[in-house]
């Protein structure tokens, strides 16, 4: 029995609320159970220096956790003078995931920055962030299209992410913190709406996992991401 009493292949309750920020060109408040993340997409009429004159745009991301997003207060990273290695790794993952489904030529020489701020964490913050970030990015591009800044085709596909793991010997989908902290194997999958794989992160926390177990995790992730993509479609329709 999972601590959450969910079936092995059952997602947490997921919601995607568009328009969560008054000022951002695109925004989404995403909830995976008790994990809540605010994603905002901001448009700038500039690109990094190394892209100037290329005719291509850029999509990047920043990620952070509020001090009381977890059970005990953590120091704001700005106070320490630099983001942690974990923060840098996650924001690079979010940026890579979004760029994989963007036609940067069609975007033109503009930059979209998606900020993902974790309000409350209960496992799976990076997967929730990626799933909500796509909705914020989609709304930002729709905002641009409404102003004749871009045409159709900038956003080529959906992208969503979910965690899977081996918990008490069984493969399970969408781990919350209680499950993640005890899992024998922990993995994160990022996929497109057409089931293309963008990134897989998998680690044996206790005992190595088998090829069959990995295949079971891939199957769970594909089914879970299929459900998340359908929720994205409903959110932006």
From TrEMBL:
Protein's UniProt keywords contain Heme: no
Record organism: Amorphus orientalis
Single GO MF annotation: tRNA nucleotidyltransferase activity
EC number of the protein: 2.7.7.56
Subunit structure: Homohexameric ring arranged as a trimer of dimers.
InterPro entries noted in UniProt: ExoRNase_PH_dom1, ExoRNase_PH_dom2, ExoRNase_PH_dom2_sf, PNPase/RNase_PH_dom_sf, Ribosomal_Su5_D2-typ_SF, RNase_PH, RNase_PH_bac-type, RNase_PH_CS
Residues reported to bind phosphate: 86, 124-126
Keywords: Nucleotidyltransferase, RNA-binding, rRNA processing, Transferase, tRNA processing, tRNA-binding
Gene3D superfamilies named in the record: GHMP Kinase, N-terminal domain (3.30.230.70)
Domain of life the protein comes from: Bacteria
Protein name listed in UniProt: Ribonuclease PH
SUPFAM superfamilies named in the record: Ribonuclease PH domain 2-like, Ribosomal protein S5 domain 2-like
Record field: catalytic activity: tRNA(n+1) + phosphate = tRNA(n) + a ribonucleoside 5'-diphosphate
GO terms classed as biological process: rRNA 3'-end processing; rRNA catabolic process; tRNA processing
Function: Phosphorolytic 3'-5' exoribonuclease that plays an important role in tRNA 3'-end maturation. Removes nucleotide residues following the 3'-CCA terminus of tRNAs; can also add nucleotides to the ends of RNA molecules by using nucleoside diphosphates as substrates, but this may not be physiologically important. Probably plays a role in initiation of 16S rRNA degradation (leading to ribosome degradation) during starvation.
Residue intervals of the Exoribonuclease phosphorolytic domain: 10-140, 159-223
Keyword Transferase among UniProt keywords: yes
Homology family: Belongs to the RNase PH family.
